[in-house]
Specification:
Elements: E1 4-15, E2 18-30, E3 35-39, H1 46-53, E4 61-66, E5 69-70, H2 76-86, E6 87-91, H3 102-112, H4 117-130, H5 146-158, E7 164-168, H6 176-191, E8 196-199, H7 203-206, E9 211-216, E10 219-225
Parallel strand pairs: 3-8, 3-9, 6-7, 7-8
Antiparallel strand pairs: 1-2, 1-4, 4-5, 9-10
Helix pairs in contact: 3-4, 3-5, 4-5, 5-6
The structure holds adenosine-5'-diphosphate (ADP) (2 copies).
Length: 233
């Protein structure tokens, strides 16, 4: 009944004769609709875990079951398929196509899903309206502010109705005011039933999440419900 079931996973990197245990033993269960902040110092294994969660990488040991699918031993192609269907990514650097409009950026994932152009544009417009950018659909990324670019990226992440949103330092390139706006948007998305996993260095940003997971040296050192959030799902 967990959306994400991670059981005793490890990930090691081999550099020359040296083995780096980026993840030693991590177990983590996440239910549909949770909003989790993943924190921890640099080098603690956050990116490694996010890459595995996002089906960009597989563990060296242990099991990862996502939405009932065992993705632990999948091939690159199988992983790509699961990724397109199950995961919406939001990045620190937005990762938008610079020559494409907001609408085209948001509609892009629907091309792979096989929708007609008309259907893609309709859905992308609706998604941009949902993030408050209905009046910016024909703007290219360099004609948008940082906060607006991240809104476009969030709309793109949501367009395929993924089962999880993975946000890696989504406010890392934004000023404080804009960061708060983007976190407000993440809260709205969560309130609609979406599952969000957010990596952040900033305590203030993590406080928007309902659950906080802290990593250190490839292990989870702490995992608790955020006491600052009153409503519990
Ligand atoms: P964080 O995201 O918390 O900063 P990472 O997951 O990036 O941590 O890194 C965890 C450990 O794994 C670090 O010691 C890092 O140097 C190492 N590591 C991460 N990615 C690689 C890689 N591709 N090759 C070799 N070592 C890596
Ligand atoms: P926000 O308050 O949403 O962060 P800004 O104050 O940065 O927005 O920008 C105000 C307006 O200026 C926005 O509507 C945006 O479309 C426009 N804008 C911002 N940066 C640029 C740019 N580099 N080129 C063209 N228009 C821009």
């Amino acid at each position: 009944h967990f959306l994400i079931q991670i059981d005793d996973i490890g990930r090691e990197y081999i550099i020359g004769t040296e083995k780096i245990h980026a993840l030693k033993s991590v177990s983590l269960n996440i239910k549909k609709g949770e909003f989790v902040a993943l924190m921890g110092p640099s080098g603690s294994g956050k990116s490694t875990l996010m890459n595995i969660l996002g089906c960009l990488d597989t563990p060296s040991k242990g099991q990862y079951i996502l939405n009932g699918i065992n993705v632990s031993d999948m091939s690159e192609n199988e992983l790509a398929e699961v990724r397109n269907k199950e995961i919406g990514f939001v990045f620190q650097t937005f990762n938008l196509l610079p020559k494409s409009t907001a609408l085209e950026n948001v509609a892009l994932p629907l091309i792979y899903a096989g929708y007609s152009k008309k259907k893609r544009d309709e859905q992308a417009l609706k998604a941009l309206e949902d993030v408050g950018l209905g009046n910016r659909v024909d703007h290219k990324p360099n004609e948008l502010s940082g906060g607006q670019r991240q809104r476009v990226a969030v709309a793109r992440a949501l367009i395929n109705a993924p089962s999880i949103i993975l946000a890696d330092e989504p406010t890392g390139n934004l000023d404080t005011k804009t960061s708060i706006e983007i976190m407000g948007l993440m809260e709205n998305i969560h309130a609609k039933g979406n599952t969000i996993i957010l990596v952040t260095h900033e305590e203030d940003i993590a406080q928007h999440a309902h659950r906080i997971v802290r990593m250190r040296d490839g292990l989870i050192e702490d995992d608790y419900q955020n006491p600052q959030i009153k409503s519990v799902i």
